[in-house]
Amino acid sequence: MMEEEELEFVEELEAVLQLTPDVQLAIEQVFPSQDPLDRADFNAVEYINTLFPTEQSLANIDEVVNKIRLKIRRLDDNIRTVVRGQTNVGQDGRQALEEAQKAIQQLFGKIKDIKDKAEKSEQMVKEITRDIKQLDHAKRHLTTSITTLNHLHMLAGGVDSLEAMTRRRQYGEVANLLQGVMNVLEHFHKYMGIPQIRQLSERVKAAQTELGQQILADFEEAFPSQGTKPKKPKAPDNPFHGIVSKCFEPHLYVYIESQDKNLGELIDRFVADFKAQGPPKPNTDEGGAVLPSCADLFVYYKKCMVQCSQLSTGEPMIALTTIFQKYLREYAWKILSGNLPKTTSSSGGLTISSLLKEKEGSEAAKFTLEELCLICSILSTAEYCLATTQQLEEKLKEKVDVSLTERINLTGEMDTFSTVISSSIQLLVQDLDAACDPALTAMSKMQWQNVEHVGDQSPYVTSVILHIKQNVPIIRDNLASTRKYFTQFCIKFANSFIPKFITHLFKCKPISMVGAEQLLLDTHSLKMVLLDLPSIGSQVVRKAPASYTKIVVKGMTRAEMILKVVMAPHEPLVVFVDNYIKLLTDCNTETFQKILDMKGLKRSEQSSMLELFRQRLPAPPSGPEGSSSLSLLAPTPEQESSRIRKLEKLIKKRL
Question: What are the protein's UniProt keywords (predicted)?
C-alpha cells in the first residue's frame, strides 16, 4: 500500500515538475548523459521508432520491454530512496548546526586562551626588564657621578696649574692646558648654581683676561711703535686661528706613529705589572676591584685625543681612532681574556677521580678564592671598559669634523668587552656546576630501593648546599657594583644545574616508596636553596628577581612531579597513565619509559603500559597548528633554557 502511494506521489510530481531551460542546462552540465530518456525534449514515438526501425526488429520486442521495465523499477527504487531520505534532512541539519555552534564556542575559548597567554608573556617580559632598567639607571647615575668627580678634580688642578703657568709666562704649556680646562669646564655649565663651581669658572675667566693682557703687554714691549696704544688696546679677533694647525697636519702622522709605539709599550707594561703584582685582592665591601691599568689606559687616551684635536680635527683624528681601536682590542685580549683562569685539565681542571669521588669542603671546587675574585675583577673591568669605550666614541665624534663623524665607530671593541663579560660569567657557572657534579653522581649511585625510613636531607644535598654557600657569597660581594651580571650568573647556573639534576634523577633506579619520599624531601630542600641563592649568606635579604624565580620554580616543580608519579601505584594502569599525563603534561614516550624504569617494573609490564600510554595521549587537532600546540604543552628544561637565552639576547640588544 505504501509503495502505491509513493508511486502516485511520483507520478503527480512528474506531472507538475516543469524545469526551466537554465535549470535543465545546469543539470546536463553536472550529470552529462547520452540516454535519450534523460533529454528534456524526449519524444516517445521517435524513441520507439529508434528501437524498432524495421518490421523484422519487432521480433525482440519482449526483450526490449523487459529491459525498459527493469530500468523503470530501478528508477522507482532510486526515487523511493531519495524521498525517504528527505525525511531525515531537517534533523541532520539541526545536528550539523549544533555541532557548528559547539565548534565556534571551542574556537572562541582557544582564542581567549591564546590572548591570556600573550598577556602573561607580556607581563613576564615587563618583570624581566623592570629590574634591568632599574639597575641600568643606578649604574648610569653612578657612572655620571664618578665622571663628574673626575672632571671636578681635573678642573680644580687645571685652574691651579693655569694660574701658576700664567704667572711664569709659560705660554706654550698654557696653550695646551687652557684648551683642556675649557673642555672640562663645558661639563659644568648646568652646575653653575653651586658656589664652588661658579668660583672655579670665575677664576678661569680671570686667568684668561690676565693672560690676554699679559701677552699684549709682552708684544708692546717687544715691538714698540712711535706716536701710538696711550689707550689700552682691545683684544682683537684672532685672524690666525687654524693656520698653524693646517701647516702641521701633513706631519702629524709622526705623532700618530709615536703614540702607536707608546701605547704598545704601555700594554706590555700592563702585562708585566699584572704578572709581577698578581691578581687583585678580594674585595667584599665595594664590589669587584677594577684593574687600575684600565683607568691609566683611558687617561692616556684622553690626553692623546685632546692634544691631537688641538692640532687637527681632520684625518689625523681618524688615524688616532684606529690606534685606539687596536689597543682596546689588545687590552681585552692580553690583560682581560688572557688572564682568565684556564678550564683545561692541564691547568688544574677536573679529573676523572674528581668526578667519581665526592670530596669534602672546598676541595671539590676548581677555582681558588683568588681565582674567583680575579674572574669577578676582570668582569667588572670589562664592564667599565665597555661603558668608557662608549663615552670615548662620543668624545671622538665631538672632536672631529662633522663630515668625519660616521667613520668613528667603536662597536666592534664594545662587542669584544661584552664577550669578555660573557666568558667570565660562564667560567663562574662552570666552576660551581662542576663542584656540584660529584654530589649528583653520588645521588644517582645510591641504593634507593633499600631506603627504610625518611630522615633529614641526604649528604649529597648537604654537599651541594656547601658548595653554593662557598662560591655564591664571594661572587655576589665581588660583583656588587655590577648587580645585573650577578643576576645573569644566577639565571645561567639555574638553567645548567636543574636539567642536570633531573638527568641524574632519572638514573636513580629502582626506587622504593620510601626512597621516593626521601628524594622528594631532598628535591624540596634544593628548591628552597636555589630560590634563596641570590641572597644566600648575606645579611641584607633581597627579593630574588622574578625572572630567576620563575626558572627555579618551573624546573624544580617538574622534578617534584616526576617523584610524585614514581610514588603513585601503577595499578590500575589507566589511573596511573592519566595521572602521569596530568602531572607532567609530557607526551614523550622516552620520559614515560624512564619513569617506569625508576619504579623498577619489568619489561613485560612496561610494554602494556607503554601501549596504553600511547592510546591515552590526547589527540592533537588536525593541521599544522595541532602539532605545534602539542609540542608546546610541556617544554623540556633544555627548551626553556634556550628560550631564556634568546630573551636575554633580545633584551641586551635593545638596551
Answer: Coiled coil, Endosome, Golgi apparatus, Membrane, Protein transport, Transport
Q: What are phi and psi of 348, to 5 degrees?
A: 90, 25
How many CB atoms lie under 10 A from the CB of residue 206? 13
Residue 536's SS3 state is coil
Residue type, 2: M
Cβ atoms 306, 183 nearer than 8 A: yes
Helix 253-277 crosses helix 315-330 at what angle (to 10 degrees)? 20
Instruction: Tell me phi and psi for residue 19, to 5 degrees.
Output: -85, 145
Buried b (16+ CB within 10 A) or exposed e, 16-48: eeeeeeeeeeeeeeeeeeeeeeeeeeeeeeeee
Contact 448, 508 (CB under 8 A): yes
With CA atoms as reference, report the closest residue to 513 among 457, 583, 565: 565
Q: What is the distance, to the nearest Å, from the Cα of residue 548 to the centroid of all Cα atoms in its chain?
A: 13
**Could you tell me if 57 and 51 are in contact, meaning their C-beta atoms sit under 8 angstroms apart?**
yes
All cell numbers assigned to 90: 531537517
| pLDDT tens per residue across span 237-288 | 555 555 555 666 676 778 888 888 999 999 999 999 888 887 666 554 445 5
The answer for residues whose C-beta is within 8 angstroms of residue 138's C-beta and 6 or more apart is 483
Residues 6 or more apart whose Cβ sits within 8 Å of residue 557:
527
> Do 504 and 440 form a contact (C-beta atoms < 8 A)?
yes
Q: Calculate ∠ Cα 71-76-81, nearest 5°.
A: 130
> Residue 278: left (phi > 0), alpha (psi -120 to 50), or beta?
left
The CA distance from 41 to 63, in Å, is 26
Report the b/e string of 259-273 with b at 16+ CB within 10 A.
bbeebeebbeebbee
- d(CA 549, CA 128) in angstroms, rounded, equals 11
Please give the single-letter amino acid code of residue 550: K
Nearest to 620 by CA among 609, 611, 612, 631: 631
CB 6 within 8 A of CB 80: yes
CA Rg value for the chain? 44
Each residue's pLDDT tens digit, 548-588: 999 999 999 999 988 888 888 877 888 888 878 888 877 77
The span from the CA of 481 to the CA of 376, in Å, is 10
Amino acid 547 reads: S
Rounded Cα distance, 297 and 292, in Å: 9
Number of other CB atoms surrounding residue 176 within 10 Å? 14
Answer yes or no: is pLDDT of 331 > 70: yes
Q: Name the residue among 531, 516, 519 with its Cα closest to residue 465.
A: 531
**Do 495 and 431 form a contact (C-beta atoms < 8 A)?**
no
Which residues, at least 6 apart from 372, have a Cβ–Cβ distance to it below 8 Å? 428, 431, 471, 474, 475, 478
pTM of the prediction?
0.56
Helix (H) or strand (E) holding 486, with range, is helix 483-506
Between CA 631 and CA 324 the distance in angstroms is 50
- What single string gives the DSSP state of each residue in 183-210? HHHHTTGGGTTSHHHHHHHHHHHHHHHH
- Cell 531525515 -> residue: 88
